[in-house]
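User: Could you go from structure to sequence for me? I need the amino acid at each position, not a summary. C-alpha cells:
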C-alpha cells in the first residue's frame, strides 16, 4: 500500500486539493460576496470535483512512471516503483481506474449543471496526459510546457463548474445591471499564472538531474539540448520573471496592505532569490526541488490576502 501511495504521489494530491479549496473559499467566495453574489455549487459536488481532479493528477503520475522506468533506472534520480515493487500491468490497471473515476465524476457534475460538454474537457486532459508521457515529453520544451499548462488549469477548474451555475441563477441580475463574473476569472487566472511558472521551473529543474536517462531514451529535454549551464541560466531568468510578476501583483492589488507586503518580501521574494542563488550550485537537487515545491504552497497562501482584502 505504501508503494501505491508513492506511485500516485500522495503529497501532490494533497497540494492539488489544498489549491482547489483555497481558490474556492479564499478567492472565488470573497470576490463573489463583494459583488453581491454567492457560491452556487453544492459542497458535496465540489468535493467530488476535487476528487476527480486528484484522480487525473494521480493517473498522470502513474502513466508517466510506467513509460519512464528505463530512464529512471539509468539516471538514478528517482526511486523506481513500476516494474519493481508494482507490476506494469497493475500500474496500467490503476491508471485506467483513476481515469474512469475522474471522467465518471465529471460526467455526473456536468449533467447536474446541464452542461454535458464540460465532460469532454476531462476526457481531453486525460488523453493529453497519456500522449505527454508516451510522446510529447520526448519533444524539446513541449513536455515541460504541457505539464505546466495542465497544472495551471487546476485553479481554473474551480470556476469551470461554478460560473455556469452562477450564470443560470443570476441571469436576470447580469442582464439588468450589466455585470458579469469576469473579476472571478481574472483573480483565479493570476494564481493559475503563478502555478504555471512554478511548475515549469520545477519540471525544467528536475530534468537537469535525469539528463543521462533522458539522453539514453531519446528524450530531448532542455538540459539535453542546451546543456546544464544554459538550463540553470534559463531557470534564473524564469525566477526573475516570477519575482517581477509578484511585485506587479502586489502594486496592482495589495499596495495598501503592509501585512501583504511583508508576506511578499519575506515568504516569497526572498525565497525566490534564494532559489535563484542555489540553482547555480551543483549537487543541490533536493534543496532546489524542495524550495520550489514550498514556493508553490506559499504562492497559493497569497489567497489569504485576497480573502482579507475583499472580505
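Assistant: Here is the amino acid at each position, in order:
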Amino acid at each position: 500500500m505504501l508503494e501505491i501511495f508513492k506511485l500516485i504521489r500522495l503529497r501532490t494530491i494533497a497540494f492539488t486539493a489544498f489549491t482547489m479549496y483555497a481558490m474556492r473559499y479564499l478567492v472565488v467566495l470573497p470576490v463573489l460576496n463583494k459583488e453581491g453574489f454567492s457560491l452556487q455549487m453544492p459542497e458535496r459536488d465540489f468535493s467530488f470535483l476535487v476528487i476527480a481532479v486528484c484522480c487525473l493528477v494521480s493517473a498522470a503520475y502513474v502513466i508517466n512512471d510506467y513509460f519512464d522506468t528505463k530512464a529512471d533506472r539509468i539516471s538514478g534520480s528517482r526511486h523506481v516503483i513500476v516494474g519493481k515493487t508494482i507490476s506494469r500491468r497493475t500500474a496500467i490497471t490503476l491508471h485506467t481506474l483513476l481515469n474512469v473515476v475522474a471522467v465518471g465524476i465529471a460526467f455526473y457534475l456536468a449533467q447536474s449543471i446541464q452542461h454535458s460538454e464540460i465532460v469532454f474537457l476531462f476526457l481531453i486532459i486525460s488523453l493529453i496526459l497519456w500522449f505527454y508521457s508516451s510522446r510529447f515529453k520526448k519533444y524539446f520544451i513541449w513536455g515541460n510546457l504541457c505539464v505546466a499548462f495542465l497544472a495551471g488549469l487546476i485553479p481554473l477548474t474551480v470556476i469551470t463548474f461554478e460560473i455556469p451555475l452562477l450564470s443560470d441563477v443570476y441571469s436576470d441580475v447580469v442582464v439588468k445591471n450589466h455585470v458579469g463574473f469576469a473579476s472571478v476569472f481574472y483573480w483565479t487566472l493570476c494564481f493559475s499564472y503563478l502555478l504555471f511558472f512554478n511548475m515549469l521551473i520545477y519540471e525544467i529543474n528536475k530534468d537537469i538531474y535525469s539528463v543521462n536517462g533522458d539522453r539514453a531514451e531519446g528524450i530531448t529535454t532542455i538540459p539535453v539540448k542546451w546543456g546544464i549551464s544554459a538550463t540553470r541560466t534559463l531557470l534564473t531568468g524564469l525566477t526573475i520573471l516570477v519575482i517581477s510578476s509578484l511585485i506587479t501583483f502586489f502594486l496592482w492589488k495589495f499596495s495598501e496592505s503592509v501585512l501583504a507586503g511583508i508576506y511578499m518580501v519575506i515568504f516569497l521574494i526572498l525565497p525566490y532569490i534564494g532559489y535563484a542563488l542555489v540553482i547555480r550550485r551543483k549537487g543541490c537537487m533536493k534543496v532546489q526541488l524542495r524550495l520550489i515545491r514550498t514556493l508553490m504552497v506559499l504562492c497559493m497562501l497569497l489567497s489569504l490576502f485576497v480573502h482579507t482584502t475583499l472580505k
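One structural detail worth keeping in mind: The two ends are 43 Å apart (CA to CA).
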